[in-house]
Design a protein that fits this description.
The protein is mainly alpha-helical. 71% of the residues lie in helices and 0% in strands. The two termini are 24 Å apart.
C-alpha cells in the first residue's frame, strides 16, 4: 500500500530532523529514520514502516512476557493474541508510520516495569530506574505518555498500603528519568512560543456539549478494537470495578491505569470532538486480565475457545483484505464532501 496522508506528512519529519514537532514528539522521526537506515537508505513505504513493524513485534513479546510473569504462559499467549486481533494496533499502529506504535511499545514496557517495582521489588532502586527509562520512551513517543505516571499516582492515592513507596527514593528517581523524555519537546517549544502545548490544550477545552465527541468516545473503540476484543475488555473492567474496594495488588493497579485515561477522555469528549483512537491506551492495561480470562476458559472448554479464536482471526483477515482492496483499487466510490 502507498503511504497514507498522515504517513506522508510524518515522512517529512525524517527529511527535517528536529528536537520535536508541532503535533508529535520526536520518537516518530527516530523510528522512521531507523527503518530507512536499516534498508541502506532505500526510500519506500516498507523501509519507512519497518521500524514500526519491528516495534509491534516487540510489543507483542513484552505483553506476552509481562502477562506470563503474573498469570502464566497460557494467559500471556492469549493476551498477546488478543492485541494482534485488534484492527488498530495490529493493522494500523503496528504497521504504519504513526506515533501509536512506538507509544504502545514503551507504554507496555512502562507498565511491566511498574508492576515489578510496585509488587516484587518495591525497595529496589534499580527497578524504578527501568520504570523511568521506559516512561521516558513513552513521553518521547506521544503526549499520552503523561497518563502512565498519572495512573500510577492515582493507584497510590487510593491504596493506603502503597503509601509506603512514597518514603523510598525510587519513584522520584523514575519521575526525573521519565521527564527526560520530554526534554526535546520542551526545547522545541521554547524555540516556537510553546506552540504544541497551546495546540494540544485547545483540543481538550470546550464549553458546549459535543455529541460527536461522545460518539467517538463510546463507539470509536468498538470499531478500532473490533467488538469481540472490545467487549471482553469492558467486561473485565466493570467486573473489577464492582468489587474495587476488595481488589488488591496487580489487578487494582491495572484498573487504575485504565480508569485515568478512560475517565479523562470521556470528560474531554463531552465538550470537544476527539479522535476515536485517543482513549485506546485506557484499554491496554486490561489485556493481561483478558488473557487470564481466556486461559481459564480454554481450560474449561478448549474446543469452543479454538473456534472463537479462529473466528476472530478470520474476521480480521477478511476486514484487512477488504481494506487493502479498497485502498489499492477503489472498489467503492465514496462521495467527496
Amino acid at each position: 500500500m502507498e503511504l497514507g496522508n498522515d504517513e506522508a506528512y510524518h515522512y517529512q519529519y525524517t527529511v527535517h530532523p528536529d528536537w520535536s514537532y508541532f503535533d508529535h514528539p520526536p520518537m516518530l522521526m527516530w523510528v522512521a529514520s531507523t527503518g530507512r537506515a536499516l534498508c541502506g537508505g532505500w526510500l519506500h513505504p516498507l523501509s519507512l514502516r519497518l521500524g514500526f513493524m519491528l516495534l509491534f513485534a516487540g510489543s507483542t513479546w513484552v505483553l506476552f512476557d509481562w502477562t506470563s510473569r503474573w498469570f502464566g504462559e497460557q494467559a500471556g499467549f492469549y493476551a498477546a493474541l488478543a492485541i494482534n486481533l485488534t484492527a488498530y494496533y495490529a493493522a494500523a499502529a503496528g504497521a504504519f508510520v504513526l506515533p501509536d506504535g512506538p507509544f504502545l511499545f514503551f507504554a507496555l514496557l512502562t507498565m511491566r516495569a511498574l508492576c515489578e517495582a510496585l509488587f516484587r521489588a518495591e525497595r529496589s532502586t534499580l527497578a524504578w530506574v527501568w520504570v523511568g527509562l521506559a516512561c521516558a520512551g513513552a513521553m518521547a513517543s506521544k503526549y499520552h505518555g503523561i497518563l502512565l505516571p498519572l495512573g500510577t499516582v492515582f493507584y497510590v492515592l487510593v491504596t493506603p498500603a502503597a503509601w509506603r513507596i512514597l518514603r523510598t527514593p525510587g519513584p522520584y528517581l523514575a519521575a526525573v528519568l521519565g521527564a527526560l523524555g520530554l526534554t526535546p519537546v520542551l526545547i522545541w517549544n521554547a524555540q516556537h512560543d510553546w506552540a504544541s502545548f497551546a495546540f494540544q490544550g485547545s483540543r481538550a477545552v470546550g464549553a458546549q456539549l459535543s455529541p460527536a465527541g461522545l460518539a467517538a468516545m463510546l463507539i470509536g473503540p468498538i470499531g478500532y478494537l473490533l467488538p469481540w476484543i472490545w467487549l471482553p475488555l469492558v467486561v473485565v473492567l466493570f467486573s473489577r470495578l464492582r468489587r474495587f474496594r476488595n481488589l488488591e495488588g496487580l489487578e487494582r493497579f491495572l484498573v487504575c491505569l485504565a480508569l485515568v485515561p478512560l475517565s479523562l477522555f470521556f470528560c474531554v469528549s463531552c465538550v470537544r470532538p476527539i479522535l476515536p483512537h485517543w482513549p485506546l491506551i485506557g484499554f491496554v492495561p486490561l489485556f493481561p486480565l483478558v488473557g487470564a480470562q481466556w486461559a481459564a476458559n480454554a481450560e474449561r472448554d478448549p474446543k469452543l475457545v479454538r473456534r472463537w479464536v479462529a473466528f476472530m482471526a478470520g474476521s480480521l483477515i477478511v476486514i484487512a483484505s477488504l481494506f487493502v482492496c479498497q485502498a489499492r483499487f477503489g472498489v467503492v466510490n465514496f462521495p467527496i464532501a
